[in-house]
């Protein structure tokens, strides 16, 4: 196994999942979230994909109880939508007894799928759905719309965490400098090797022709 | 014919740096001429071992008997639920039946000597793709029994022939004690060995009781120590914390038992347990279960992925 310190440096990147765009606590009435977009990025599906890759893990970390279902479809021409399901007390009151008897949201929620099988579930009684169109939009805009629609509260890093984040940024800067030095050494070595190899092959050719 | 070494050396001098001293200049590049024809350049320092800078003797690399183990004090260790919370966040949106939790148990152990190798039946098995091949006398009641128990390939010589042709429709192979001699004669160890399929008494795959062995194989999983670490898939992403903890506990009990049962001349002990997942990072576990964040309950980690 890899050494502890090196692993710790990697693990400190976990800060990245705790803080950054998307780190927000959803209000209690959000019951589930469903995303649908295509497998590939063409035709305006890049933003949704970025949203899933970069922002959704942070949301999931702060809201582990909320099912977040991603349905990636094979059709590039299909829609890219984000549906947020809210529990609506007014609707529950209006539905009365029926809402209490209605099947729980969990039983109707599919699991994430990479072949388009996890279609957005129909909302149960006492639920309302807000859909956000994600096609041809950048992930920042999708996130902004999402936060506005849900009224999620962004998570603020503590002082300690801010210091750690700064440390991580410093480390990254240092590693970039080191990488540049290493790259130069490697290049010089490769160049020398190439010259030697060429000389060797020329010599071999001369030997063969004699 | 000129020796190649001499030839290369003079060439390397040519290509890497210009000689410090002027040599006899000729129109033809030096490497085009056989080195016998050109008088070799002599330097004041002489060549080879006589005088000049002496080569330092190459330091012998220190060899270690044990696999390296690290001081774990700087390692941030987490409880199972915390690790699951992070992993579930990393794996959000992936198909939960595809993504697996994995566990790696690092041992303090010597590099040589016996290794841990065993089979385990987890309380919550999740592998369903076990296909069993059975070697037993053809068309015997045993073959019929094996087929009824769900074996995909049954036979003796016919099975050996298909294995030799590279047709291996199974991923587990067992052998009846009656066919052991035939198996040894068949000379198929070369095909099966690298795949880890070769039946042997050691792995309890040469048996006289098909029923028990097949029952153990379906839903049972093998683990073994490689480079001082035992790794194994331990659950699906969709598992609840309770299910995962049951699996991890059972696995750890087995590993501990194996560690204790190993020959005293090769002492082994547990060092670290790391939980990771297919795409996620690895978390060193501290043996506790509950989440540390008071706002998070165990039930929160039951949600559908």
From TrEMBL, chain A:
Compartment list: Mitochondrion
Annotated InterPro entries: Ribosomal_mL43/mS25/NADH_DH, Ribosomal_mS25/mL61, Thioredoxin-like_sf
One Pfam entry name: L51_S25_CI-B8
Major subcellular location class: mitochondrion
Keywords, sorted A to Z: Mitochondrion, Ribonucleoprotein, Ribosomal protein
Signal peptide region: none
Molecular functions (GO terms): structural constituent of ribosome
GO terms for cellular component: mitochondrion; ribonucleoprotein complex; ribosome
Nucleotide-binding keyword on record: no
Xref: SMART domains: L51_S25_CI-B8 (SM00916)
KW Nucleus (keyword) present: no
Name by which UniProt lists this protein: CI-B8 domain-containing protein
TrEMBL record, chain B:
GO CC terms of this entry: mitochondrial large ribosomal subunit
Keywords, alphabetical: Ribonucleoprotein, Ribosomal protein
Gene Ontology MF terms: structural constituent of ribosome
Annotated Pfam families: Ribosomal_L1
InterPro entries: Ribosomal_uL1-like, Ribosomal_uL1/biogenesis, Ribosomal_uL1_3-a/b-sand
Gene3D superfamilies: 3.30.190.20, 3.40.50.790
Highest taxon of source: Eukaryota
Keyword Acetylation: no
Family: Belongs to the universal ribosomal protein uL1 family.
Name this protein carries in UniProt: Ribosomal protein L1-like protein
């Amino acid at each position: 196994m890899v050494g502890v310190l090196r692993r710790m440096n990697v693990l400190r990147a976990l800060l990245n999942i705790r803080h950054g765009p998307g780190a927000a606590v959803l209000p209690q009435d959000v019951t589930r979230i469903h995303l649908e977009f295509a497998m590939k990025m063409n035709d305006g599906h890049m933003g949704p994909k970025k949203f899933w890759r970069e922002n959704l893990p942070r949301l999931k970390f702060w809201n582990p109880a909320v099912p977040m279902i991603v349905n990636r479809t094979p059709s590039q021409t299909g829609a890219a939508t984000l549906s947020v399901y809210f529990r609506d007390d007014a609707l529950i009151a209006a539905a009365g007894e029926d809402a209490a008897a209605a099947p729980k949201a969990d039983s109707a929620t599919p699991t994430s799928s990479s072949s388009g099988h996890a279609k957005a579930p129909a909302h149960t009684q006492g639920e309302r759905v807000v859909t956000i169109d994600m096609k041809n939009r950048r992930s920042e805009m999708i996130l902004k719309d999402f936060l506005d629609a849900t009224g999620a509260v962004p998570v603020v890093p503590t002082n300690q965490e801010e210091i750690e984040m700064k440390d991580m940024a410093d480390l990254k800067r240092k590693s970039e400098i080191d990488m540049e030095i290493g790259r130069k050494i490697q290049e010089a070595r490769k160049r020398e090797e190439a010259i030697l190899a060429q000389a060797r092959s020329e010599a071999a050719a001369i030997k063969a022709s004699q | 014919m000129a020796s190649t070494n001499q030839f290369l050396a003079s060439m390397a001098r040519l290509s890497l740096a210009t000689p410090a001293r002027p040599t006899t200049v000729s129109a033809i590049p030096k490497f085009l001429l056989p080195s016998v024809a050109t008088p070799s350049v002599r330097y004041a320092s002489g060549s080879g071992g006589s005088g000049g800078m002496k080569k330092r003797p190459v330091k012998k690399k220190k060899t270690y008997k044990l696999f390296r183990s690290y001081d774990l004090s700087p390692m941030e260790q987490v409880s199972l639920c915390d690790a699951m919370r992070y992993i579930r966040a990393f794996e959000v949106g992936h198909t939960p039946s595809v993504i697996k939790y994995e566990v790696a148990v690092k041992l303090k152990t010597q590099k040589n000597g016996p290794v841990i190798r065993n089979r385990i039946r987890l309380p919550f098995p999740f592998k369903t793709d076990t296909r069993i091949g059975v070697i037993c006398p053809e068309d015997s009641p045993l073959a019929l029994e094996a087929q009824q128990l769900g074996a995909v390939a049954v036979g003796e010589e016919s099975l050996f022939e298909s294995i030799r042709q590279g047709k291996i429709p199974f991923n587990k192979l067992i052998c009846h004690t009656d066919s052991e001699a035939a198996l040894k004669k068949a000379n198929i160890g070369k095909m099966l060995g690298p795949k880890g399929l070769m039946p042997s008494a050691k792995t309890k795959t040469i048996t006289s009781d098909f029923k028990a062995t097949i029952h153990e194989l379906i839903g049972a999983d093998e683990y073994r120590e490689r480079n001082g670490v035992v790794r194994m898939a331990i659950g699906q992403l969709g598992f609840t914390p309770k299910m995962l903890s049951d699996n991890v506990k059972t696995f750890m009990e087995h590993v501990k038992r194996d560690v204790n049962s190993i020959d005293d001349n090769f002492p082994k002990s547990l060092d670290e347990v790391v939980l990771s997942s297919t795409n996620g990072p690895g978390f060193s576990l501290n043996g506790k279960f509950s989440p540390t964040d008071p706002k998070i309950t165990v039930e929160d980690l039951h949600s559908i992925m």
